[in-house]
Structure formats: C-alpha cells, structure tokens
Amino acid sequence: MKYYEEDDKIVLEDFDSFDVEQTLECGQCFRFNKLGEREYVIIACSRVLHITQFEEKIEFYPCLREEFENIWINYFDLGRDYIEIKNILSKKDNILKKAVDFAPGIRILNQEPWECLISFIISQNNRIPMIKQVIRNISERYGTALGDYFLFPSLKQIEKADEKELMSCKTGFRAKYIIDAIKNVKSGNVDFEKLREVSTSGVREKLMEIKGVGEKVSDCVMLFSMGRRETFPTDVWVKRVMEYFYFDGADTKIKDIHSFAEEKFGEYAGFAQQYLFHYARMFKIGAK
Fold first, then answer.
1. Which domain holds residue 170?
2. How far is the C-alpha of 26 from the C-alpha of 273, rounded, in Å?
3. pTM of the shown model
4. Which of 33, 108, 199, 276 pairs with 230 at a CA distance of 20 to 30 A?
C-alpha cells in the first residue's frame, strides 16, 4: 500500500482487496451517501469524508496524512492482509471461492461501538433505506452539525432522550431498546473499553443484557466494531443462505449454523459471512 498527501487529500495507490462500493454496500454500515459512480461521502469517527475510487487510485478528502494514518487506515482495515484471508477461504469450498471472486474488494470496517450498537438495534426487521433514514433522523435531532451533515450523537447528547422523541425519529418499537441501551452504557454495565479484555462469548452475553439485543445484533456489533472477526452474525436472511448452500435447503437451527461456521471457517468466520451474505444478496440466493 502506498499513499501520499496532495493539497487537502490523501491519494491511495498500489493497494489491493479494497473496493469502496463493495465495502460500503455489503450491509455492515449505514452512514454513507452515494454521490456518483464510485464516489461516496461517509460520516464516521466524528468526521465527514469524501471518497472517490478510480481505476488505480482512491482519493480521500478532506484528509491529511496524520488523520489518514491515525483514523482511516484502521477504519477501513487497510493494515490487514486480505489476500491471505481470501486464499484461505477460497480453499474451503467452491461456494466460498465464487463469493470471494464476486466481491474481492470487501473489507470489514472498524466502526465505533456505540454507534454500531444503536445502528444494529435499529436494523432489526428493517430495510436498509429505512435504517439509514432513522439513523439520519436521530443524528439530525441529537447530533452535531458538520457542514451539510450531522454526526451520530454521543451518549451525552442522547442520554436524556425519551421514547416519544425517539419514536418521532421513526424508530418504531426499537425506541424502548435504544432507551435501554443508553441506560446500560451510561451506567457502565456495558463498558466497551472493558469488554475488549473479555472473551467473545462473554461480550455476547453482556451485550444481550440490553433489551432487544439478541445474538445477531450482538454478533454484528462485535464483528463490525470490536474486532471479533470470528463471529458469524446470523439473521433470517443469512440462515436461509446457509441452509441453501450447506444444508441442502433443510430448516436448520441457528446454533447448528454457528457450530458449522465455527468448525469450517474458524477465526475467519466473519469474513466468510460477509462474502457469502453479499454474494447471496446480489443474486437473491435463498430469498423467499
């Protein structure tokens, strides 16, 4: 990977396994807008970042070297060797090889745990356009304006929100879950820093103490914001995909899917989930 600073932008060259569209559009994050062909704006890490991908380079702006090195390299997981991961997964079976080959530029983001938690609470039984709209509504009501955009609210900014206010942001039944998440994080019962030292199963159990947070939401939070790449988030859609690919279409319990994923994919289960999920979603495999 090579990059250099030019005016108020970072130009990334000589990179591999990074496609901005594939990474943003694979269902792992919601705070982005598509401005044009391979051109996006992202609201993350208390910043607004424009990204434009060309054939042989990617431009990040406004962005200086220090910010790129201290924030965005980690956010986009650019320090990880995805070629090795894809080679390992492609050798597992032909299904995974096709999924990897279809979207070889997916990288798993390292998002902020607080925002990721609330985002995936909102995601339950919801379509991506509506998820994005609800998060935008909450940000505009409680967050800080930054140019034409609003940052996701900090705990302090949203801690006094009540259920009625959140309902006005179109959260629906999820408002009470957001309220409980706020209480758990504010009280310190869910402390993201301390959870870094806890086992994956322990983190899952702690997150599931929040009302409305089940295995799927907790696993998404762990995979997309806490570096637990061995997790395999399984919602109804992923369940159908796994049944289609690996269980001859038979109805299969989620715990059995998790056991299968742990045994077959091991520490790379989260990467496998993203490649399989995106591949199946694009071709509507397992859809009903």
1. 113-225
2. 11
3. 0.96
4. 33
- Centroid of chain to Cα 188: 24
Measured CA to CA, the distance from residue 260 to residue 279 in angstroms comes to 19
Closest by CA to 131, choosing from 184, 182, 174, is: 174
The residue with tokens 């799927």 is 216
DSSP string, 216-233: HHHHHHHHHHS--TT---
pLDDT at 288 over 70: no
Cβ atoms within 10 A of the Cβ of 55, count? 5
Eight-class DSSP state of 111:
-
Counting the structural domains of the chain, the total is 3
Spatial distance between the Cα atoms of 261 and 268, rounded to a whole number of angstroms: 9
Contact 23, 105 (CB under 8 A): yes
Instruction: Report pLDDT digits (tens) over 47-76.
Output: 999 999 999 999 999 999 999 999 999 999
Section 151-168 average pLDDT: 97
Report yes or no on 47 lying in a domain.
yes
φ/ψ region of 175 (left if φ > 0, alpha if ψ in -120 to 50, else beta) reads alpha
SS3 of residue 72 by DSSP: helix
CATH of the domain at 165: 1.10.340.30
208 — phi, psi (to 5°)?
-75, -5
> Quick one: DSSP state of residue 215?
H
7-35 burial, b if ≥16 CB within 10 A, otherwise e? eebbbbeeeebbbbbbbbbbbbbbbbeee
Torsion of CA 6, 40, 148, 69, to 10 degrees: -40
Would 127 be classed as within a structural domain?
A: yes
Beta pairing class for 47-53 and 9-13: unpaired
Average of per-residue pLDDT across 109-129: 96
